[in-house]
Amino acid sequence: MVGVEFKSVEEAESFYHIYSKIIGFNVRKNQCRKNQVGIVTTRSWCCSNAGFRRTKYIKNPNKVCEPRSEIRIGYRAMFRVCNSKIAKLWVVKEFLANHNHCMATDTQKHFLRSHHKISAAELEQAKLLKKSGMKTSEIWNLFVHQNGGWDKVRCTKKDLYNSLAAGRRGVDDLDSNTTLTFLQSKLDIDPEFFDAYMVDEVSRLTHLFWADGACRFDYKLCQMPLVVLVGSNNHGMTCVFGFALIQNETTETYTWVLQTFLECMKDKLPETILTDGCRSMNKAIEDLMPNIVHRTCSWHILNNAIKHVHEEGFVGELRNLIKRYYSVDEFDLRWNKMQLDYNDENNEWAKALYSLRHQWADTHLRGSYFGGSTATNRCESMND
Questions:
Q1: Where are the alpha helices (DSSP H) in 223-313?
Q2: Residue 48's CB: how many other CB atoms inside 10 A?
Q3: How far is CA 68 from CA 39, 61, 146, 158, 357, in A?
Q4: How far is Cα 6 from Cα 12, in angstroms, rounded to an integer?
Q5: In angstroms, what is the C-alpha Rg of the chain?
Q6: In the predicted model, what is the mean pLDDT of residues 29-47?
């Protein structure tokens, strides 16, 4: 073992911890030597039973509490590495593996003090569950279920109680860090979980996107249309493909959302897309998905018609043009007749709407699958 090289002191420490857990003993830090400028040059670790406790900690007349039971029994079992200036590596200089005590069994290793510690991801998840009203014992049972048994959880039940109690004694207002850490922890139970985010000039969270394995599976398998990030399956049921939190509704923001979504879905484009007609979203779709069949929400069109054409009966006629199948020629005839009947030949809004008829009229969208939807009600219901 002497002469083995490690890239960093952390890597050496990790190795000795893994080794000690396999063998079955506790580890504690031993010596740490620094040079004249304060850089660590030597680091060593040893078994927690190595050496002897100093007399001043045992025979102190001013000590209020009784000293803890003695576990240091004199033998030397240690691991020492030194920094090599030439190779810039940490080289093992001493490795003693002699123990004069019994090793922990497989069922006892989990309780070794140096080998049970709650991870940052698990702690953030526990804090969120605690805030939602779950008891600490229920959170522990959840961790046991997630990891496949109590012996596979990286901490003890007492560690969980202590960590949550310590959190209550402080103030944690870093919601962004808590959220990102929680999303990262989802990878432990869902390897297909995906998340991405953006920050501004001062490192504040601005955009956040996430989708779990079920979202990605539904999208890849069912060939369903995309409604922002929501679609329907062949049973007419809503399927969620992903979520995105955004700071604003600019073209740049929607471009980032769509690019991130495509990255999550391994660049698999949807066949159709249904939006509310937002101009910045339309521009992003046109730039990134120029060949996608794009439909504009009929509810938003009819709502805008009420605002721009103040003629009774116009909305009903427009609804028929949106939802009924006509030949292209018949559609144009009915549109022209509607213009004459309601005196809106010079209405700029109506002219713009007609120029985009391929995005809202069933006559021009025939053959494209939208799951029976002409409006973004599926997406709106998710917001409710």
A1: 251-264, 279-288, 298-308
A2: 17
A3: 34, 15, 36, 19, 82
A4: 6
A5: 33
A6: 85
Asked if residue 260 lies in contact with residue 252, where contact means CB atoms within 8 angstroms, the answer is no
The one-letter code for the residue type at 307 is K
Tokens of 227: 């409604």
For 172-210, give the DSSP string.
---HHHHHHHHHHHGGGT-TT-EEEEEE-TTS-EEEEEE
Residue type at 183 in one-letter notation: L
Q: Provide CB contacts within 8 A for 371, sequence distance 6+.
A: 224, 225, 231, 232, 233, 236
* Helical axes 251-264 vs 279-288, angle rounded to 10°: 50
Structure tokens at 23: 């063998």
Q: From residue 19, give the alpha-carbon distance in Å to each of 98, 168, 363.
A: 14, 35, 71
Residue that the structure tokens 């297909």 belong to: 192
255-292 as b/e: b if 16+ CB within 10 A = bbbbebbeebbeeeebebbbbbbbeebbebbeeebeeb
Tens digits of residue pLDDT in 85-130: 776 788 888 888 877 777 777 777 766 777 777 778 888 888 888 8
Tell me which residue of 182, 212, 180 sits closest to 197, measured CA to CA.
Answer: 180
**How many Å apart are CA 42 and CA 268, to the nearest integer?**
52
pTM for this structure?
0.46
Q: Where are the beta strands (DSSP E) in 246-363?
A: 272-275, 293-296
Residue 181 to residue 177: CA distance in whole angstroms: 6
